[in-house]
Fold ZPR1-related zinc finger protein.
Amino acid sequence: MIPCPVCGEELNVVTATYDTPYFGKLLITSISCRCGFKHSDSFVAEIKDPVRFTIEVNKKTLFSKVVRSTSGTIRIPELGLAMEPGPASQGFITNVEGVLMRFEDVVEMAKRWNSDDADAVERCNFILEKLRLARDGKERLTIVLEDPHGNSMIISDEAFMEKMSEVEARSLKTGLTVVEITGEDYLKRVVDSASGGEETDVT
């Protein structure tokens, strides 16, 4: 029995698998309770060799496709930015410009949260200016996409792909790791993931 996190009654659980482009096999899970609690999520069900993609941001690569799975980490090393998977990490498909805009949104939020800290606001403004210049093709930045499960990619002739060592892969966060996809341990992880989120570091 998997108890509802709201009322404690037994949850109704429905799962299905689908083959999808880019992400491969996905496990779709839906849980619900008579009290009204509902949660659905999708997880990449395949684990491949750990991989790293690197691409330089310029006018030519702005619209290169970026496929980030639930276990992918995206970094912009020049600015000390990192988007790491949290307990309820979600995959997405965007382009290089979209990645920059996602970071802009987070930095804007950090700026608001630290509005009474002059140094933090100055740092945020510096990062925002660099990101916007990069989107205009006036600043050279690097996007690094790493995935210990090998399900993320940058689709571009300008991207450099390399396999990661096991040591490097173990140092990465993976978000929700599915160990058993049919038993109670897995279902408890699904319930727990309903309160998780993405982790983005602005340093």
